[in-house]
Amino acid sequence: ITHTPTALWPAGANTATVIFANNGAPQAFVTNTWTYSVAPYTTLTPNLKVAADTSKPGFKWNIFANQANTTASNARTEAALAGQLKDVDGVTPLVNNADPAAKGVAIANATAPSPANAPIKFEIAGPLNIDSAATGASTNGNFGPDGQMPGLPGTDSSSDGAAAEAISYINLPAGLVAMGINSDDGFRTTVGLLPQDVIGSIRVGEFNGARGSADSIFYLSVQEAGVYAFRTSWQNSTT
Hints:
About 5% of the residues lie in helices and about 40% in strands. The protein has one helix and 13 strands; from the N terminus they run ββββαβββββββββ. The mean pLDDT is about 95.
């Protein structure tokens, strides 16, 4: 018996049952049942496609850093990137200490944060394979060597309390697409018509918390080939 599915099975637990019989008299029936698990995946519908200039590879890289608040959570990331991060006392607003002159692998320096609590903005023309303290031969993820992360170390000589976002547009084929993020510490990857729409975008991958350099693999079911807008946020609590 051969079965060729015309669509992805639902994520989670699934059951397959085969019932067959012989031609004896009396006829005997046999039932075999199997259970199996399908990994979680997110469906990208055609209405999420965008028009973008795909002749310019790379990423927009926006970053904030202040070692006064190193909470290991993606909520801190979003507060920092929105210019709303407070000290651990929950009251004192924090300024952005990411260094505009520390361009790393970016194509140019950034401008100073304006206002002082806003993220600074870089552009990275190549792959997003960066480290907050790259040494030229370091390989903390799966590929090497790592490039120097733009904006770090900060003007206070620290990489603690960093929060950043990488925005890019990816031309995806139709079908099942596997993606992976290697991060230290947490990350969140979303897809949406407006990549920085934190509320309206679809979350496709995430690790929320602190960890050493590690992989998170996630899957996308792309209903129609095209260009999709991706945003990956990242946070570092302490080095």
